[in-house]
Amino acid sequence: MRPFTYERARSPAEAVAAATRTPGARFIAGGTNLLDLMKLEIEAPAHLIDVNGLALDSIETTPEGGLRIGALVRNTDLAADARVRRDYVLLSRALLAGASGQLRNRATTAGNLLQRTRCPYFYDTNMPCNKRQPGSGCAAIGGFSRQHAVLGTSEACIATHPSDMAVAMRALDAVVETVRADGAARSIPIAEFHRLPGDSPQMETVLAPGELITAVTLPRPVGGRQIYRKVRDRASYAFALVSVGAIIQRDGSGRVALGGVAHKPWRVEAAEAELPRGAKAVADRLLAGARPTQENAFKLPLVERTLGAVLAEARGG
Amino acid sequence: MPKLTLTVNGASHELALDTRTTLLDALREHLHLTGTKKGCDHGQCGACTVIVDGRRINACLTLAVMHEGASVTTIEGLGRPEAPHPMQAAFVKHDGYQCGYCTPGQVCSAVAVLDEIKAGIPSHASADLAASPQVTAAELRERMSGNICRCGAYSNIVDAITEVAGRQA
């Protein structure tokens, strides 16, 4: 690990001011992803701003009847919250499908959104990677790409976003609240939060330098059967090959978001109109324009079949 | 170097550490509590699992300086050879290990798992999110998935935890 200086921020304003003042600074909360990357020197911040003391760790009901989830709420606490378990089952299920008990005890809501890809070429500093070293090339294209993206890819990058939680947040129309370096607050719909790789895969979100996530808000509950189904190589503690997060209403309408297939949680609202016609019709629209590699072409039928299983489960009760 | 105060197994320690020192290295290299093991050092194996302020975490993926004033329980704090914790005794009785390297992490994790179930924290294996989770083999396997045992003592580990849970109930 490269040397770095360290400070504890006591308020969001203090944290963003410190980030603005100090070149090469990063915020640290749970640290479960950042420290892993720092040990490999994939991340080498000159300064860490510890935001764990910012008191952003509560879940409050909003005036609209939704929830405002503090940025520092740990994955364990969010998944276990009685309101989330009752009204946002999809979110609880997605969180519980991710990582391990130890990691969920540390990992935060904001940090989960900001997780970096687990592409093995991003992690292997001997290999080219446009995300790690812009302009160096992409070793995943033409390499081992079984885990990689099939949608929204570019010539520069075929990495996936690894989060389960973000898939649920996308289906639930979450909004990311931030405070910027100049002190201004803004609200970013989750659909606009993560970027596709394009020709700058090192930029993964629309956050500006020094911008801090303070909360994630959920609109009032939408009901329905909420199912998160994750297909992976092990029964537990593995990243998704494909995951489907769905909210299916009694009349057959609903919402569907996918994980494990793109650089961001994948949702195509127009595809949801096809729900009454079944999984194939929805999958055809969701997967339109897919560009799989030879090694991950299996993800296309896997999405359709996983969605089929989810729809059957939703109908079953 | 930044200074910090840590309470480890009930004893207070003042440390002056490089910012890069993980909690795991602080325990092993500075406090010489070598019961906590370094396996992968990347949060994948669980050998470094300790209990911080009542919660199990990977000591390798957190910086010591982030835990000013925290209370840490390591395997040395759970029991001693002459007075083992019930979970340690159950691991011995059920042969819940072979080489033993992952065992301190397994035991710390297992103790915390039973607390988590008691606190009603659900898991991926919980069929009904509205119900209180129960101590079943499926629940234990899922909840212990962050602790890898290269010797493959998993079924005996589940037996050991199940016995302790039964005793507690």
Summarize the SSE layout with pairings.
The complex is a heterodimer of chains A (317) and B (169).
Chain A (H helix, E strand, L loop, with lengths): L4 E4 L3 H10 L3 E4 L5 H6 L7 E4 L8 E3 L5 E4 L4 H6 L1 H6 L1 H8 L4 H6 L2 H5 L6 H4 L41 H7 L3 E5 L5 E5 H4 L18 E7 L6 E7 L10 E7 L5 E6 L19 H8 L12 H17 L2
Parallel strand pairs in A: 1-3, 2-3
Antiparallel strand pairs in A: 4-5, 5-8, 6-7, 6-8, 9-10, 10-11
Helix pairs in contact in A: 5-9, 11-12
Chain B lengths: L2 E6 L2 E6 L6 H8 L18 E4 L2 E4 L12 E3 L1 H4 L7 H8 L9 H16 L18 H7 L10 H15 L1
Parallel strand pairs in B: 1-5
Antiparallel strand pairs in B: 1-2, 3-4, 3-5
Helix pairs in contact in B: 3-6
Would you mind describing this structure in some detail?
- The complex is a heterodimer of chains A (317) and B (169).
- Chain A is 27% helix and 18% strand.
- Chain A is built from twelve helices and eleven strands.
- With 169 residues, chain B is an alpha+beta fold.
- Chain B folds into two domains: 3-78, Ubiquitin-like (UB roll) (Roll), CATH 3.10.20; 86-168, [2Fe-2S]-binding domain (DNA polymerase, domain 1), CATH 1.10.150.120.
- Helices cover 34% and strands 14% of the residues of chain B.
- Chain B has helices at 23-30, 75-78, 86-93, 103-118, 137-143, 154-168, and strands at 3-8, 11-16, 49-52, 55-58, 71-73.
- Chain B has a five-stranded mixed sheet with strand order 2-1-5-3-4, with helices on both faces.
- In chain B, helix 3 (86-93) packs across helix 6 (154-168).
- Chain B starts with a strand and ends with a helix.
- The model of chain B has no long low-confidence stretch (mean pLDDT 97).
- The chains are: A alpha+beta (317), B alpha+beta (169).
- Chain A binds chain B through residues 1, 3-6, 8, 28, 30-32, 35-36, 39, 48, 50, 52, 76, 79-80, 85-86, 89, 92-93, 96-97, 99-103, 105-106, 234-237, and chain B through 2, 18-20, 22, 41-43, 46, 49, 55-58, 61-63, 65-66, 68, 109, 112-113, 116, 119-124, 126, 129-130, 141-147.
